[in-house]
Amino acid sequence: MVLPDATFDPDGPADCDALFGLPHTVEEAAVVVVPVPFEATASYRRGTRAAPDAIRKASGQVDLHDSETGSPWRQGIAMEPIDPQVVEWNEQASRDALRVIGATEAEDPEIAAARRRVDAVSERLNAWVRERTESLFARGAIPAILGGDHSVAFGAIEAAAHRHPGLGILQVDAHCDLRPAYEGFTWSHASVFHNVTTRIPQVAAIVQVGVRDLGEREWERANEDDHITTWLQTHVGWLLAGGSAWGRLAHHMVEHLPETVWVSFDIDGLDPALCPHTGAPVPGGLSWQDALVLLRVLAETKRRIVGFDLCEVAPGPDEWDAIVGARLLYKLAGWALHTQETRR
Ligand SMILES: [Mn+2]
After folding, report:
1. Does residue 18 lie within any of the structural domains?
2. Measured in angstroms, how far is the CA atom of residue 172 from the centroid of ligand 1?
3. How far, in Å, is the centroid of ligand 1 from the Cα of 292?
4. How many angstroms separate the alpha carbon of residue 208 from the centre of ligand 1?
5. For residue 122, is it within any domain?
6. CA of 15 to the centre of ligand 1 (A)
7. 30 C-alpha to center of ligand 1: Å?
8. Ligand 1 centroid vs 311 CA: distance in angstroms?
9. Domain of 212?
């Protein structure tokens, strides 16, 4: 991919509102970010619907030269405009979901109807995300889904797994997201990997890193299911305290992944100092450097990142969460592009 405008200066200030200040169109870009400002089932704190816009605005500050992945910007990274249909779905389903979450009478038929409406909107959203992802794969682009809450990853993973049967998923997350429905919502953010493992047989392996908040049944489930490898942060912390090195552990972590990988990055997998406004923050988590090492190990062990999602960033009153999100988005795009080249 060559730039349409040879006068573009990657070291100059970003002088436009485009993602990372880049001049590429969505049609030209090798990585296409699909904004999904949807957070209907957010159960604790809201705000992730604002992430795509906030990350785009913060992205102008990201230096385009990356010491690890080179100059990923050259191949083009662009963000699609926010689809007003998604905004409408979010408003509609959030209204219903808040009634359900606040309800004291679980058997109330009106509440049951509201819950069904949330599930129905989530299904339409899943189909929309799947279709967007499929069309990007079809033209050879790398899809990058930008949430919203973690539920938005489902349709994209479905598309990726159909395109690449035997797909592996590297999930960075404070939570397992293995609950069979949460607060009654089939498509809850807390159920996304329950839905992936029960509905997408083409997914061969899930490796969960950063996990430090999970239910009893989730833990049983993670242990029973041969497809799932869960690295508890307590266990990792103990290994580190005993003298293990993070880089070695990262190699063990990716060992269970096949060659073709989707990265599902829930920002709450990181230390909450890096994402203080996310919906369900938990103390502990990966440092910035830990996360970068993990991604690098994934790439250096010859895995190919076919696409990724970044979810649960909530900008909050200052821009910090969005700044971290924008930098992580650039790293993910950089490694995804890098792994296409090294495997070609
Ligand atoms: Mn999650």
Report:
1. no
2. 8
3. 19
4. 10
5. yes
6. 34
7. 26
8. 8
9. 24-343
Give the separation between CA 111 and CA 116, rounded to whole angstroms. 9
Nearest-angstrom CA–CA distance, 55 and 86: 18
Residue 238: CATH number of its domain: 3.40.800.10
Of 266, 277, 326, nearest to 61 by C-alpha is 326
β-pair type (304-311, 142-147): parallel
pTM: 0.96
Both tokens of 190, joined, read 């807390």
- Looking at residue 304, what DSSP letter applies? E
Token output for 220: 């049983």
Grouping H, G, I as helix, E, B as strand and the rest as coil, residue 296 is helix
Q: What's the confidence (pLDDT) of residue 12?
A: 85
Write out the residues surrounding ion ligand 1, Cβ under 5 A: 150, 173, 177, 266
Find the 177 Cα to ligand 1 centroid distance in Å: 6
**pLDDT above 70 covers what percent of the chain?**
97
Q: 211 C-alpha vs ligand 1 centroid, how far in Å?
A: 10
311 lies in a domain?
Answer: yes
Is 232 part of a structural domain of the chain? yes
Task: Give distance in angstroms: CA of 34 to centre of ligand 1.
Answer: 18
- Predicted local distance difference test score (pLDDT) of residue 13: 83
**What letter does residue 303 receive in the DSSP assignment?**
-
- Condensed to tens digits (0 to 9), the pLDDT of residues 54-97 reads 999 999 999 999 999 999 999 999 999 999 999 999 999 999 99
Q: Cα 121 to the chain's mean position, in Å? A: 20
**235-271: buried (b, 16+ CB within 10 Å) or exposed (e) per residue?**
ebeebeeeeeebeebbeebbebbeebbbbbbbbbbbb
Report how far residue 244's alpha carbon sits from residue 256's, in angstroms, rounded to the nearest whole number: 19
Q: If you search the block for the tokens 């990007």, which residue do you land on?
A: 136
Tell how far the Cα of 167 is from the centroid of ligand 1, in angstroms.
19
What residue ranges of the chain have pLDDT lower than 70?
Answer: 1-6, 15, 106, 341-344
If one counts the domains in the chain, the total is 1
Tokens of 102: 């606040």
